[in-house]
Amino acid sequence: MNTIITSTWDTIIQHFFPIFTVPTTGSFLNLVTGWVLCTAKRAITGILPFADPAGHKAHDAYHRFFPDAFWVMSELWRLLTILLVGIFYPTGVISTDLADTLFHRSGRKVNGACWWRDAVRSTGTNIVHAWGLNLVVRTLRINPPWGGEPLGLPINMRLHRKDGPTLIKLASQMLTEVALWLPQRRFLCSADGFYTSLAGEDIPNTHIISRMRRDANTYDLLGKKRKKTRGRPRKKGKQLPSLEKLAKRITNWQRIQTCERGKSREHLVYIRKVVWYRVSRKPVLLVISQVPAGKEKDDFFFTTDLSLTAAEVISDFAGRWSIEDTFKNTKQFMGGQEPQIWKRKGPERAAAMSLWVYSAVWLWYLGQKSKRRYLFVQPWYPGKLAPSFADALNCLRRVLWRDRIKIMFGKRFVHNKNFKFLIEALASAA
After folding, report:
1. What is the pTM of this model?
2. Residue 349 banded pLDDT, cuts 50, 70, 90
3. How many Cβ atoms from other residues are within 10 Å of residue 429's Cβ?
């Protein structure tokens, strides 16, 4: 890593002060710090005792921060993206992931909320709908120094509205926006099968990895040009069999090793350049994957980057699971669904801020020396070897509470056994 990671929480937050007005910078610092320390429901009234315990600013200033304050969320994402890429991807292709999630909300008048399919509770035969905010999120994939499963750090978000652009359109806007922030860099984005049509979008410096439908109509590449004849020139070659039939006919499987979420796995693969004309006019790289034991169905992946190997495609798509962990942790530990903000830009900004703070916590934690990265091993989980987001959050809370006690009562109280017990209790409080 060429860029030094700032290890002080206030220093990280101050990096984003330029996008706020002078009176709002203090509210921003207090709110994100209070969001981390909060042990209650993360409504503004729940955050305030931790954000500004001395009451230096009127509570109205904090209530107006999300719905009315003059600042732009896209600028906050832009500065965060540039900072994270400079630290974790100084060179090479930047790996990202894309997915949508539902933040449950209560209240009929929440701006942007509507009834959406709840993917977590729905099954193939039973569709469950829930009231909330439908968010499209892009994360930067980070390989932590302790190895294992990668981390997904949010770098952009869009709110999907019933009367607004589609999920695909919003995703395309995000991919283009991030590419324009870093025009000299190349991006690789993994997404589930819903977003396969992004392969046909004209997105600068960005390639897509996703699943291919089993009933997809694929065609061979166009051969040598024939002599000019009547009619429109051909744009695709001969139609290929269905993917499942094609897999049964393959005899020249290649045996490879992939790295999936930190673990090595063996696959039999077959790769071929094809035209998926319904999705993209340009050729894509088809990767058919088969587990040697034969206990799983064949997988069909594709990528718009024709230079990738089969191992890179499969490994990259497997790493997409990090974004699902991001959603779970943001809802469970950062209270992303809890802010009781209803009007104007408030609900969208509050949801985005919970994801933004999630990235900031990991950024702070990864900047700590290895001996200062707190890892708590529960008695029922003695084999735990890698820190979780809960460990990162507890570690940051411990430092922030220690600093507050030092300011309020003096240095000698930091080493007091009673205060040490209090700090440990507050650090792990939900």
Report:
1. 0.87
2. confident
3. 12
